[in-house]
Model the fold of this input.
Amino acid sequence: MSKIEIKQKYYRPEGFENQFNEILTTYNKFLVVPGKKDEELEKRDFLYNRLKSKRKFYTKLNNPLTKVGIVVVLLVATWAFFAPWLSPYAFRLVAVKDPNSADYLPPSALHLFGTTKFGRDVLGRLVWGARASLSIGLVAIVISSVFGVIVGIISAYYGGILDSIIMRLVDIIMAFPGLVMIIIIVSIYGSNMSYIMLIYGILGIVGYARLIRGTALQEKSRTYVEAAKVSGSRDWRIMFTHILPNCITPVIVAVTFDIGGIILSLAGLSFLGFGDPRLVEWGTDINIAQRQIEYAPWAAFWPGFAILLAVLGFMLLGDGLRDALDPRLQEKN
Amino acid sequence: MKNVKDMSKTFNNLDISGASQKMTKNDVKPLLIVKDLHTYFFTQEGIVKAVDGVSFTINHDEILGLVGETGCGKSVTALSLLKLIRSPGEIVSGEIFFDGIDIVEKTNEEMLKLRGNIMTMMFQDPMNSLNPVLKVGDQVSEVYLLHQMEFLKDELQKAKEKNSKLKENLKRMKKELKTCSPEGAETLKNQINAIKQQIKFRITINDIARREAAALLDRIGLPNAETIVNRYPHELSGGMRQRIMISMGLACNAKLLICDEPTTALDVTIQAQILDMIRELKRKLKNSVLFITHSLGVIYELCDRVAVMYSGNIVEYGTVQNIFKNPQHPYTQGLMTSIPRVTRESRAQELTIIPGMVPNLIFPPSGCRFHPRCDHAMVICKKIRPELHEMPNKVQVACHLFNKDKSGEEYRKLTEEEKQEDVL
Amino acid sequence: MSHSQAVENGEDIRLEEEAYEGALLTVNHLAVDYPIYGGIFMRRIATVQAVRDISFKVFPNETLGIVGESGCGKTTIAKTILNLVESSKGEIYYKDVRIDNLLKKNKYVRQKVQMVFQDPDASLNPRKKIVDIIGEPLRNLRGMRDNTLIRRRVLNLMLQVSLKAEHLDRFPHEFSGGQKQRIVIARALACDPDVICLDEPTSALDVSVQAQILNLLQDLQRKFHLAFIFITHDLSVIHHIGHRIGVMYLGLFVETGTIDDIFYNTQHPYTRALLSARPAVSEAEKQKKIILEGEIPSPSNPPTGCSFHPRCQEKMLPECNKESPHEIIISETHHVWCWKYN
Amino acid sequence: MSLLKYTIRRFLALIPILFGVLLITFVMTRALPGSPVLSAAGELRGESQAQYIAKLEERYGFNQPVLVQFVKYLRNLFSGDWGESLSVHRGATVAYLIGKAFPRTFEITILSMTLATVVGVNVGIISAVNRNKLKDTVIRFIALSGVAIPIFWLGLLLQYIFAFNFGWLPAGRYFSASLEDLEIITGLRLLDSLLLGKLDYFWDTILHLIMPVFCLAFVFIAGITRQTRSSMLEVLELDYVRTARAKGCKERDVIRKHAFRNALIPTITVVGLSFAGLLGGAVLTETTFTLHGMGWLVVAAINGVDYDIINASVFIMTIIFVTANLVIDLMYGIVDPRIRY
Done:
């Protein structure tokens, strides 16, 4: 075979050119431009989607418990966001001292849930308290999940000594009794809201690092990672565009659960008296009211109920998400 | 061969002897009759018609092969026979008669007595099909414990009697020891020690079952059966695990053994071993086998008759010799030609292929499910689902090509566009 | 079509290159060890010799088949060539460039030597669109950045493997096994490779789909003058598509030769057993079965001498279990490692 | 690798962890604001107070660099001298205080974990078997509330209802003030009172323990139920369960014999870690019910800046935690024969 023949065959495979041009001239010109779609194609896509049922994820979430969870989370978020409009009393009155009212008043028309120490309205504190809990929870979770994911993926992907060192550090922090450690740190740095956020965030990194390391190790051994290497992807690209999207699901679930966990733990901290005293916070309320539990149970009951509600909301949502996202459960049916 | 003798002996008391076999031979009734079976899965996406009108029979002492591609409903058919279909699946209609028993009408409680006893099933992946935390012996002996309780109790009684006899002997000897001379004492002591080793402290029914399991594994040709019963599945190789799966099926000498792709996960040489073993066992035990596979080669080597499945239907059904020599249905023809053959002539030829792919079972094509991929597709193929017809060479084929009168618009050939109309 | 036009259409841009006649890939005495760690301090306590001593050459337009049962090291060879696994001994050359420890850095060689993996399901990232999957090598190796250009080139590749235009923006789980394998092949073709290692490309597929893929591979080979290293355990497939074959057992070749040599002039007892164990589909192919006893020994502790001797039914010489056999040249193309022919 | 070698290897790996924990705790205690000797100075004011503090600091070596103190502390620790309390219970040795607090914690832990495991595992199985039915939904909801409930709030509610409202149960502490004088044999009050044959003491302790044990158990039942349910669901879909059904096993046997042991493995982790966490002291519960166990001790120590108690109790909690981890891993090997060391 002469070189010319080879070239001809090589560059113009039979029939291919015509086929290609034909398709280009019909509807495919839209296909090669990202984001554009052709009408006929869309029709086909519609037929196709009829098969694969895009609503799968939403139908999975369509579980009574999950729906309750979503509603509760939205409710608590609304309280937190619209607290100034929803609260019957201004922040000054529920945070410091209400001069127009007395300590531990039973529920009445004026104070629907009664009052607590310094005559502060329980309902008002309940609404304002959502702010502290949610903002601390959210900030802490963002810190810990972002850094945890980065550390975990690097540790899993490179392995070796780096992995050993990171994991030993993780072991040490994990081995600490969590609440005790937080109490000690809070005692050292003072119970400032921003410190508390940081402490929860930093301590949480460890858990996320370990969580994502586990799944990333599994993903790392999958063939598509090798295929990406063969396609010339660099390490960072493999880590963050190939492996990360495939192991983010458990992180999403864990984040939902952990927001609840942090709110709960924060309440415990305040209950022990280590919370930020200037903050309107549910745990602090219970701490204040616990000595009067015999005479004014409402003052301790409602904040606790609010904690339960908020945490339960996140837990229900997390549970639903896990069911919906878990590939093992998904493949069945 | 020693093994053969042993086997026939033990299986005699399990009520499957040559004599009873002969009696059933005269009876022309087939062992299993499946009529128009429909098994659907009611999922959120829609109804998956996994098995849609399947009929076949299995005779006594015969291997029926069920061949088809992934997702054509082979395994679901097999699971339906044992009523092991789990929610959201359901046997919608159809009849299954096994040895005169109506399986579809049976309650779950009644099925428990049949499963593993007179009909049993082994699965594709022997690693996942054996419980990883139980010893192999326990898993095999469980079948005895479930279905052979009477037999085991008899054996237990025998063993206990033997034990008590030994104990009496021991007592007598001990008495003698006190009175006898010093020279005789030496030999007596040895005898006593020997007996002591034979006496078991306590014999339970589990011990008997485990002993039977070891004996079974031994008969099946596993070396060191005594030690293998005390191993865990992960300590064995793939071939050994598959043998253990087979032995579980044979423990009660089931009349029907359903093998769901038993050799797919194995290497060629091991596959040859296992096929050889199934063939041997079937020859000795004269039971029937439903062999499910996607490999035409295995079917050709092992089976007597074959049913070719496509997308929940049987399209061709007959003896292996006839179908492999002269396939009639376009799908079977396509399958046959798409296998690379190992002959000098076949090398030069390009493989002829079936275009397209297996249809989705939620929205299957109308009429004949094969028509979108068929070269001979006609208008009628799109409208009416063909029934199985008996052909001159005793092969049953479900295809409109073999209708007698083929004139009129109904038999116009479809164009490519028409074929693909409702295919996604 | 001019050069610039070709580039615009995302067509092949390698216009000026010469067709190459010599060996594209040369493997010399390759050995690969996997260490096993254990003990209190997790030190290396043993090695699995996945590949022990393998040499071969691959020429353009040719399919070299590597046949063997699971655990014999065939996949390891492919991975070593692609530098996914490090070799412990031996050299690998692409043309005359030594590539066994270079591949990670050298984009050019990555373009020229590509791989298709066994399980099409696992080798596609489930969270990426098809256009991104096939376009990945273009971005990384060709440095293409323009999305429209990449889409055009990807569309071109997809048409080559008979995929449709509307598949561009779908995700892998929406495809059947055969289509997935086509996607994988299209990705391997993206940068105009010379050599493609095919690691059991059809073993996860159904018979009819397997035939489609085999035909496609043959077409592509003809079109692009590709060299294939076809790894498989299915002898009928390699009989159909292959030109030369090496039969492997426990990390070593036991017999190499052309199709005619191996199938119609079989020498090694293992090859004979493999051939006979393959289930036949017609009277013409039926052979007397040779049932091998036992299973493949563990590669961490291979038998002494000829590694096949514990299962060999023709072993006759005392050397069999003492020393490993030498390479016996039966004809120019046909080599066998067995004491019988010494 | 043999079990022994594996255990040795794991113990060796513990050394750096324990060392790290000790060091970090030590440094952190020294960073705590205030000084343990401040309270010791008591009534003293002004010049004499400063002098007295300086004298005490000199005596305990607090004026030396932290690292020097740490080395000294380590030496003492391993020779058995855990130091003495400066503020919580001035003059008592740390070993004595912990020896008094730990059995109490241990008693509650054993009781509540036994209850939680038995109930949790069974309820979890029931829930998995009835997946997505009403029973399952109710169980899941209760289990999730158990995880979400603030334990101190639950404690307060129970106190309010049973102690203050109905007066059936005592509100807190281990025993009635009149029955304090029980001889100590093991330190476990329930066991001691039985050994001594003093049933009134026994009954009294039980009444005191009902509420805290229920509180703790409720929370841990929730965790164990959830874990058992999800691992059971996973196992029930596996091939060997299908094999068991094909053999003709009854559904009950399929669950008990084939599925349960495989599903147990993740549950062991949850039980083990909860157990370890509880042994380290349930800070919140002990505070709510004024039970003077480990949790109460450590919080009191932090409040009083009592260096040695903090160090020792954190050290003990860590040891319990890592040992529990090791035991869990060894248990895996017993339950799952695939795991070899």
Notes: Residues 1-16 of chain C have pLDDT under 50 and may be disordered.
